[in-house]
Specification:
The complex is a heterotrimer of chains A (323), B (305) and C (392).
Chain A (H helix, E strand, L loop, with lengths): L12 H20 L3 H26 L8 H16 L5 H23 L4 H21 L9 E2 L15 H23 L2 H11 L1 H6 L4 H27 L1 E2 L6 H14 L6 H19 L3 H15 L1 H16 L2
Antiparallel strand pairs in A: 1-2
Helix pairs in contact in A: 1-6, 2-6, 2-9, 2-10, 2-11, 3-4, 3-9, 4-9, 6-9, 7-9, 10-11, 11-12
Chain B lengths: L2 H32 L6 H19 L2 H22 L9 H23 L2 E2 L10 E5 L2 E4 H23 L1 H11 L1 H6 L4 H23 L5 E2 L2 H16 L4 H29 L2 H26 L10
Antiparallel strand pairs in B: 1-4, 2-3
Helix pairs in contact in B: 1-5, 1-6, 1-8, 1-9, 1-10, 2-3, 2-4, 2-8, 2-9, 3-8, 5-6, 9-10, 9-11, 10-11
Chain C lengths: L1 H15 L9 E7 L6 H17 L3 E2 L2 E9 L4 H14 L4 E3 L4 H13 L3 E4 L5 H4 L7 E3 L6 H13 L3 E7 L2 H13 L3 E8 L7 H10 L3 E4 L4 H12 L7 E5 L5 H7 L7 E4 L8 H14 L5 H19 L7 H10 L10 E2 L5 E12 L5 E5 L6 E4 L11
Parallel strand pairs in C: 1-3, 1-4, 4-5, 5-6, 7-8, 7-9, 9-10, 10-11
Antiparallel strand pairs in C: 2-3, 11-13, 12-13, 13-14, 13-15
Helix pairs in contact in C: 2-11, 2-12, 3-4, 6-7, 12-13
Classes of the chains: A mainly alpha (323), B mainly alpha (305), C alpha/beta (392).
Chain lengths: 323, 305, 392
């Protein structure tokens, strides 16, 4: 990326449209061929992709290395899970609730964390995520560390049965498309320009008169909300949620997806998720040690792509490195 | 709570804190001097434990297992540093986090491929009974040995850092690396040595804790987080901070695990108390960190100028 | 886009790997904990199950048996994914294997949702015995409470005045202490729930020392139990406190790891190595011959599960598609169990005897669990939840 405002190298809109049409068609084809299991797998990958894209919002665009993002995904999942368990299966209530609750948590966590910098920010976000993890673990009423099984998927009415693999796939596709479109519009707005500016040099941006903290807060909350949406989809896909979803290692996995797919690009998280999860499944068929190979691939990507990451973070980080 | 119980729990907290210190000290040095976040530090702890278990089985002696595992792990650490990690010093924290996260995956699986998912490690039979410290207070002798070893190593590290030339370099490097380089200190060699030292400490902790906790793949991840909390509380780059921080966390964790459930059991039914207690205890540690960061953002004993 | 192309290639290879198999065999999905500190338990069930199939010429019920084995790594979400894969992709006829109730509860909906039978060689939690019973779930082991009820009965008979109770904080743990208290008439000094998977018990042991109970009863399966007993002995508590355990807490795997300190410990179980029937004699002899170690209750249950499948498929004459008929045949349980008399209750949980055992040395000087008396502590015992189950 040659500058915050450049659209060179960005995928043109018509390519996105084609991809969307292809995705719709692929789903129908798979269902017709009786490949429901694989359609379900693809849905799962796309949900992770959405979660990774929401992380990319603060990581790639905002330059904020948050190790606690998985917490928002988990919060969204538990919100929907708890609502369904308590007899409120309506998706029209559940999904917005998931996004709202995640946003609130993001506001609380962001309010404190964003006052810190560098490694302290990383540690604080991690600490908060662990706190949420332990808290949820202790609420035995909703399963604790055994997790929460839900009997049915969210109900959106209109005769839409989400137990049908294809219907669910279309829902995921819809959420993904809407979220990506939203993020695209956001980053191309005035708000987005300020965010990119503060990523590259927050001191200068502050000096120009922008309240960087406020922009970061809004970004953090939005990312949290979209993370919550992915969580709502995830609990539906698995009919199950457990606190492990919020563990810091899961945040690490999301980060890996973002890096693999291309940090700072719109759908980098999505491609990274598809790639990583497919690699996992493919390797897992042949060897139980697939993490070994994935680890090497990841290491190679990090070590041999100096521009990709360093260029994005260099100026911001030097503040912490002097002295 | 009786005096005996309090004393016994204090010893437990001390034991845990000292083992944490062994990990945290290496971590804080690496972070302080090389400015590198090393998530794979927990993996070194795991490698140390596995080597100790494997060698103890081979030599039929726990002591030899530990004594051999320590230099081997240090060597492994130094090789790792010289080959892969060196290229990360100049990179941003994000890259370091990701690269070392990848290393965790690689090392975890490599260990699993070589030794399987877990190995048995038993304390020497001579230490499998208790010692009567006070009438009514019988404390496991093995844990006393851990405390002894932990204190000895803490003292050793203190002397190393304050009384030796290498220690002076380490302190210089921790407070201002560029200045230290300008003063002619061979930074490359220092880094490798520091890393090796950190790895050795991890190995001791891994080997000593092996009989108590299980020697299994993934054992590094849970203790790594606590080690990071410790160094953030203590101040990055400060060994004294790591010591104080470790003991603080050790005591808060141990007492939290018992005092809080006690309290909760008076107030709530057992099942609620049982999870609320330990959950609150775990949260306490993070709360402690948050409070410290709020009051003194760079940690209690930060050495950065 | 490179990622896209790679994705397409990978999907294609996955599809190829799962071409539909022929249906003239019995497919079984076996998910269990095969790694980590508790991996020994899953391995016991798996080994015994495989032994039964092998002794049967690689067949169950006359059809060649294909057993797909997966490791849940002690994680409910991994277990659930394995269930989903075996049930939906590989379309197995039976699921079995899980050791731990929390993992089984996560995976069970997958099986039930696709009308696949789950025959549990271990986990048998109380909710599924009662209100949430399912026609697709059969417990081939014992109701989670049973060992503990027998132990509670024994503690009452022995006259212990105060009992200190410990279990991990999950469904089976809660069931265990509830079961003990149901039959124990003395005073409960404390009821402590530890974290599932916890390995360091120094804090809890300090508490026990301070409480000075007559008897300590704990339910800590696998690596948890091994660590606890070792630390219990290291803290010198074995001299002051009497230990009573549920059967698997003092079983061969624990004995192997802890050693001589186990002598004299009493425990309750529905099976023992020296239980006197032909099927058991054959099982113990063959297991020791094949695997060079003595079997635990987990192995006995795994073996019985295979025998049950064999009997059911035979009874159904190889028709695996008629689920209703298969259910009837499983429920009939017309097989020679290693524990002697075995039958299912209306909620598809077992009704059987529970005996008192003690760790002693056998003729060869090995440490084994022997039956103290052929009179069971609890005879023809079902479970306390059967009336809540609507199945008849």
């Amino acid at each position: 990326m040659s500058g915050p405002l450049s659209t060179a190298g960005e995928t043109k809109p018509w390519v996105w449209c084609c991809l969307l049409v292809l995705a719709v068609g692929l789903g129908w084809l798979m269902q017709a061929q009786g490949l429901g299991f694989y359609l379900s797998m693809l849905s799962r990958m796309m949900i992770y992709g959405l979660a990774a894209c929401s992380l990319n919002l603060i990581l790639g665009y905002g330059g904020l290395v948050s190790f606690g993002h998985a917490a928002f995904v988990g919060i969204g999942a538990y919100t929907v899970g708890i609502l369904i368990t308590e007899g409120v299966p309506s998706g029209w209530i559940g999904f917005p609730a998931a996004m709202l609750v995640s946003a609130v948590f993001a506001a609380l966590i962001g309010a404190i964390s964003l006052r810190t910098r560098g490694v302290y920010f990383i540690m604080i976000t991690l600490a908060f995520a662990q706190m949420v993890y332990y808290l949820v673990n202790s609420v035995k009423a909703y399963g604790g560390d055994e997790g929460l099984n839900i009997r049915m998927r969210s109900d959106f009415g209109f005769g839409l049965n989400l137990k049908n693999d294809l219907a669910f796939y279309y829902l995921v596709l819809l959420c993904l498309a809407l979220s990506l479109w939203f993020m695209h519009r956001l980053m191309h707005s005035r708000f987005g320009r300020v965010v990119l500016a503060q990523r590259d040099d927050d001191v200068r941006t502050e000096a120009l008169g922008f309240a960087v903290y406020r922009y970061q807060m809004v970004l953090f909350v939005l990312a949290g909300a979209i993370g919550g949406l992915s969580g709502a989809l995830m609990v539906n896909q698995q009919n199950y949620v457990n606190p492990n979803l919020m563990h810091w290692t899961q945040s690490g996995v999301l980060m890996v997806m973002v890096i693999l797919g291309g940090v700072g690009t719109l759908a980098g998280g999505l491609w990274g998720a598809l790639l990583l999860l497919t690699l996992e499944d493919v390797f897992a068929e042949y060897t139980v040690h697939w993490q070994f190979y994935v680890g090497w691939i990841l290491l190679a990507v990090v070590l041999m792509a100096p521009q990709g990451l360093a260029g994005l973070f260099k100026r911001r980080d030097q503040e912490g490195r002097h002295g | 709570m009786t005096w005996i119980l309090f004393l016994e729990q204090s010893l437990n907290g001390l034991q845990f804190g000292l083992m944490l210190f062994l990990l945290a000290s290496g971590l804080t040095l690496v972070f302080g001097i090389m400015d590198m976040i090393n998530l794979a530090h927990g993996a070194l702890y795991m490698v140390g434990a596995f080597l100790a278990a494997w060698l103890a089985e081979l030599t039929l002696s726990f002591l030899w297992g530990v004594l051999l595992a320590v230099p081997l792990t240090a060597l492994f650490g130094m090789v790792l540093e010289a080959s892969l990690l060196r290229s990360l010093y100049r990179r941003d924290h994000m890259s370091q986090v990701l690269a070392t996260f990848a290393l965790i995956l690689i090392i975890n699986e490599a260990v699993r491929m070589i030794w399987g998912s877990d190995l048995a490690l038993s304390a020497p039979a001579a230490l499998s009974g208790p010692v009567e410290l006070l009438p009514g207070l019988k404390y496991p002798s093995y844990r006393l040995v851990i405390i002894g070893v932990g204190l000895a190593l803490a003292l050793f590290l203190y002397l190393l850092v304050t009384q030796t030339r290498m220690g002076a370099w380490v302190r210089a490097g921790a407070s201002n690396r560029d200045m230290a380089m300008a003063m002619g200190i061979n930074i490359q060699r220092l880094f490798t040595l520091v890393f090796g030292l950190g790895a050795a400490m991890c190995a001791v902790a891994g080997a000593m804790l092996g009989p108590l906790l299980a020697v299994q793949v993934g054992m590094g991840e849970s203790i790594l987080i606590l080690a990071f909390v410790v160094i953030v509380i203590g101040g990055i780059g400060s060994i004294w901070g790591a010591f104080v921080g470790s003991l603080l966390v050790g005591f808060v964790d141990t007492f939290g695990r018992t005092l809080l459930p006690h309290l909760f059991r008076e107030l709530f039914p057992p099942q609620v108390a049982a999870t609320a207690g330990p959950a609150a205890a775990s949260i306490m540690v993070y709360l402690l960190m948050a409070v410290v960061l709020f009051i003194r953002p760079q940690g209690l004993f930060a050495r950065r100028s | 886009m490179k990622a896209g192309r790679l994705l397409a290639l990978s999907m294609a290879s996955l599809l190829a790997a799962s071409l539909v198999q022929a249906s003239d065999k019995v497919k079984i999905g076996f998910v269990s904990t095969l790694s980590g500190p508790n991996g020994a338990l899953g391995a016991e069930i798996r080994d015994a199950f495989n032994l039964a199939v092998k002794l049967n010429g690689g067949k169950l019920g006359g059809l060649p048996a294909e057993v797909l084995i997966g490791d849940d790594q002690f994680k409910p979400d991994v277990g659930k994914q394995l269930f989903e894969r075996y049930v939906k992709r590989d379309k197995v006829d039976f699921m079995t294997g899980v050791v731990f109730s929390n993992i089984m509860l996560a995976g069970l909906p997958e099986a039930v949702g696709e009308k696949t039978f789950y025959l549990s060689p271990n986990a048998a939690p109380s909710p599924i015995a009662g209100k949430e019973c399912s026609p697709y779930f059969f417990a081939v082991s014992w109701p989670n409470d049973a060992y503990h009820e027998a132990a509670g009965q024994y503690a009452t008979t022995k006259g212990f005045k105060s009992a200190y109770l410990i279990a991990p904080n999950y469904q089976a743990g809660k069931d265990s202490l509830a079961g003990f208290k149901r039959y124990y008439k003395g005073k409960v000094a404390a009821e402590v729930y530890t974290k599932l998977g916890q390995l360091d018990y120094s804090a809890e042991l300090a508490e026990i020392r301070a409480a000075k109970p007559d008897v300590l009863y704990f339910f800590l399966p696998g690596g948890m139990g091994i660590n606890f007993i070792k630390q219990f002995v290291a803290a010198g508590l074995n001299k002051d406190t009497k230990l009573v355990l549920p059967g698997f807490g003092a079983d061969q795997d624990i004995i192997r790891s802890v050693g001589e300190e186990m002598l004299g410990i009493n425990d309750t179980a529905h099976w023992a190595l020296d239980l006197n029937n032909a099927a058991n004699k054959k099982f113990v002899t063959e297991f020791e011959k094949e695997y060079k170690r003595l079997p635990t209750v987990y192995a006995a249950q795994g073996y019985d599960t295979a025998l049950l499948i064999d009997a059911a498929v035979r009874g159904a004459k190889g028709n695996l598609d008629d689920k209703e008929a298969m259910r009837r045949h499983i429920k009939e349980a017309k097989f020679e169990s290693v524990r002697g008399a075995f039958r299912f209750n209306t909620n598809q949980y077992p009704i059987q005897n529970y005996y008192l055992r003690e760790v002693q040395k056998d003729a060869q000087g090995r440490l084994v669990n022997k039956i103290v008396s052929q009179t069971p502590v609890l005879a023809n015992h079902g479970d306390a939840y059967v009336q809540d189950c609507p199945m008849k």
